[in-house]
C-alpha cells in the first residue's frame, strides 16, 4: 500500500492512542513489526504556537519511519500551520483527527464533532494539503452516533480535498470505546473512495486482524488496545497474513525482557519523575498476563527509581 508517496510495507499498523503511543512505545511497535506508527492526538493550536509539551510529543527519529503525526483542530489556518510543524519535525504523514470523543474537544467543535460537518472537514483537509508536501490523512469514526453514519460522505469529501488515506475507527463518537465495532462501515468506505482505507476497532488477538481485513476489504488495520502491553501482536498478525506458522505468545520472562527495554527508554526520554508516573500504568499492561499481577501492581506504586523498577520486573516476570 502507498499513502501518497509513502510506501507502507504491510497492512498491520499501530493506532494512535493518547498517553500510550509516545516515541519509546512507537519504536517498540516498529521493532515488533508495525508497518506504520502514529503519535497521539495533539492540539493543533499548541503545535502551531510551538508549545514545549506539544513539540515533545512530536519528537521523532528517522528509525521510526514511516510515521504519522496527528493533530486536531477546527480552524483551517491553525491546522495548516500545525501541519507545517509536523512536516518540519520529520514526519512522513500528517494525520487529522476527526474522531476524538472527549467532551472537552467535542464541545469546542473539534475532533468527533466535525463528523457532523463534512464541509468543515473538507475545508480543513484542503488547507492542510495545500500547506505541506507530505501526504495528509484523516482519522474518523462511523459518525456522531448510531443514527447518523457520515463516514462515507466525509471520506469522499476529504478525498476530493486532497486526503491521501482515511483511517476509520469502526465505532460512533457516541460509543466512545464501548460496544462492538461495526466493520461493515469500513467496507462501505472502502467501496466509496479510491484512496487507501485503514480500519480499527476490536482487534485483540492476531486472528482478529486477519478476520477484519478479509471481511472489510480494508487496505490495512490499526491495532489499538490489543497492543498495550502486547507488542507481540504485530509480529503474530503479520505472520498469520503471510500464511506462516502461528507465533506463540511470549513467556513471562520474554515479557519482562521487553518491558525492561521500554523502562530504560522511558527513563531516558522523560527523566525519572515523569517516567515513573507513566510506567506505573504502562508496566501493568505487560503484567496483566503474569500470574503475580496483583503483587506486581502493588509494588509498582512503591518503586522510587529505575534500579528498583528493574528489580521488581526481574522478580515477577520469571
Ligand atoms: C486510550 C486510548 C487513546 C486513544 N487516543 C487516540 C488518539 O489520540 N487519536 C486517535 O485518532 N485515536 C485514538 N484512539 C482510538 C484508537 O486509535 C483506535 O481507533 C481504537 O482504540 C480502536 O479500537 P480498539 O482499541 O478496540 O482496538 C484512542 C484509543 C484509546 C483506547
Count of domains: 2
CATH superfamily of the largest domain: Aldolase class I
Overall pLDDT metric: 97
Count of individual beta strands = 10
Radius of gyration: 19 Å
* Distance linking N and C termini: 40 Å
Task: Report the sheet-strand fraction.
Answer: 5-15%
CATH class term of the largest domain: Alpha Beta
The number of helices is: 14
Q: Can you tell me the residue ranges where pLDDT is under 50 for at least 5 consecutive residues?
A: none
Order of helices and strands: EEEHEHHEHEHHEHEHEHEHHHHH
Q: Would you write up a description of this structure?
A:
The chain has 318 residues and is α/β, with parallel strands linked by helices. It is 47% helix and 14% strand. Strands 3-10-9-8-7-6-5-4 form an eight-stranded parallel β-sheet. The protein has a two-stranded antiparallel ribbon with strand order 1-2. The longest helix is centred in the last third of the chain and has 19 residues, at 252-270. It is globular and about 55 Å long. Bound molecules: flavin mononucleotide. Flavin mononucleotide is lined by residues 15-18, 40-41, 70, 97, 99, 139, 169, 177, 200-203, 224-226.
Amino acid at each position: 500500500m502507498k499513502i501518497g508517496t509513502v510506501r507502507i510495507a504491510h497492512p498491520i499498523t499501530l493506532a494512535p492512542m493518547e498517553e500510550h503511543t509516545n516515541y519509546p512505545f512507537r519504536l517498540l511497535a516498529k521493532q515488533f513489526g508495525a508497518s506504520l506508527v502514529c503519535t497521539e492526538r495533539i492540539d493543533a493550536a499548541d503545535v502551531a504556537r510551538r508549545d514545549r509539551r506539544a513539540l515533545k510529543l512530536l519528537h521523532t527519529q528517522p528509525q521510526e519511519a514511516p510515521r504519522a503525526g496527528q493533530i486536531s483542530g477546527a480552524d483551517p489556518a491553525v491546522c495548516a500551520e500545525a501541519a507545517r510543524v509536523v512536516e518540519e519535525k520529520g514526519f512522513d504523514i500528517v494525520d487529522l483527527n476527526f474522531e476524538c470523543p472527549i467532551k472537552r474537544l467535542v464541545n469546542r467543535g473539534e475532533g468527533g464533532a466535525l463528523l457532523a460537518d463534512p464541509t468543515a472537514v473538507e475545508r480543513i483537509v484542503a488547507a492542510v494539503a495545500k500547506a505541506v508536501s507530505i501526504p495528509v490523512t484523516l482519522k474518523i469514526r462511523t459518525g456522531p452516533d448510531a443514527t447518523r453514519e457520515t463516514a462515507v460522505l466525509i471520506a469522499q469529501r476529504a478525498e476530493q480535498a486532497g486526503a491521501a488515506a482515511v483511517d476509520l475507527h469502526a465505532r460512533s463518537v457516541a460509543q466512545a470505546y464501548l460496544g462492538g465495532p461495526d466493520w461493515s462501515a469500513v467496507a462501505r468506505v472502502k467501496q466509496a473512495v479510491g484512496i487507501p482505507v485503514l480500519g480499527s476497532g476490536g482487534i485483540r488477538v492476531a486472528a482478529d486482524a486477519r478476520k477484519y481485513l478479509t471481511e472489510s476489504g480494508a487496505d490495512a488495520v490499526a491495532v489499538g488496545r490489543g497492543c498495550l502491553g502486547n507488542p507481540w501482536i504485530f509480529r503474530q498478525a503479520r505472520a498469520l497474513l503471510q500464511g506462516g506458522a502461528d507465533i506463540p505468545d511470549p513467556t513471562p520472562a520474554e515479557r519482562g525482557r521487553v518491558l525492561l527495554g521500554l523502562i530504560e527508554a522511558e527513563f531516558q526520554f522523560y527523566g525519572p519523575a515523569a517516567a515513573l508516573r507513566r510506567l506505573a500504568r504502562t508496566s501493568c499492561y505487560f503484567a496483566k498476563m503474569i500470574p503475580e499481577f496483583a503483587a506486581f501492581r502493588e509494588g509498582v506504586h512503591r518503586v522510587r527509581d529505575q534500579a528498583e523498577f528493574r528489580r521488581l520486573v526481574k522478580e515477577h516476570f520469571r
